[in-house]
Amino acid sequence: MRFMIIVKASAESEAGKMPSQELLTAMGKFNEELVNAGVLLAGEGLHPSSRGVRVHFSGKNRTVIDGPFSETKELIAGFWLVQVKSLEEAIEWVKRCPNPMESDSDIEIRQVFEMDDFGAEFTPELREQEQRVMAKAAELQKQQ
Fold first, then answer.
1. What's the pLDDT at 144?
2. Burial class (CB within 10 angstroms; exposed 0-12, middle 13-18, buried 19+) of 52
């Protein structure tokens, strides 16, 4: 099972405050533990929403909205993508994580959809297309 572990933004992350050397060291150690356990697929921190945009979809229309965005607690400051056996295992990993912010913070855990989750609507042809596209993306990543 794959899970996205989402670090929620805080006032300091939205202000662009960089983590301390102590926190970077602790996070590096945590990331090494994830890698050594063979569960880490990806993980990144994100710039504040002031450096981002949103694209609003309304029928065929697309509207680009510049950041920053309100409701800091609803924004994402970073993430890990892990592959573990269960939600409980993902929770145990998150409990070991250093607090990613100087202040109180939240980390959300969400399961990633797998092909089988989509049921009959995800036809054999669509499955083959998805596998082909993802294989090509992986190959392009190797070339970089």
1. 85
2. middle
**Considering the entire predicted model, what is its pTM?**
0.89
Phi and psi for 13 in degrees, rounded to 5? -70, -35
Phi, psi of 123 (to 5 degrees): -65, 165
Whether a cis peptide bond, with omega within 30° of 0, leads into 124 is: no
pLDDT at 72: 84
* pLDDT, tens digit (0-9, with 9 covering 90-100), for 38-57: 999 999 999 999 999 999 99
Contacts of 48 (CB under 8 A, 6+ apart): 9, 13, 14, 15, 16, 67, 68
Residues in Cβ contact with 117 at an 8 Å cutoff, skipping those fewer than 6 apart: none
Token pair listed for 15: 């202000």
* Token pair 């009959």 in the structure block, residue: 120
Nearest to 4 by CA among 104, 76, 53: 76
Burial tier of 29 (Cβ tally within 10 Å: 0-12, 13-18, 19+)? exposed
pLDDT for 66-110, tens place per residue?
999 988 878 999 999 999 999 999 999 999 999 999 999 999 999
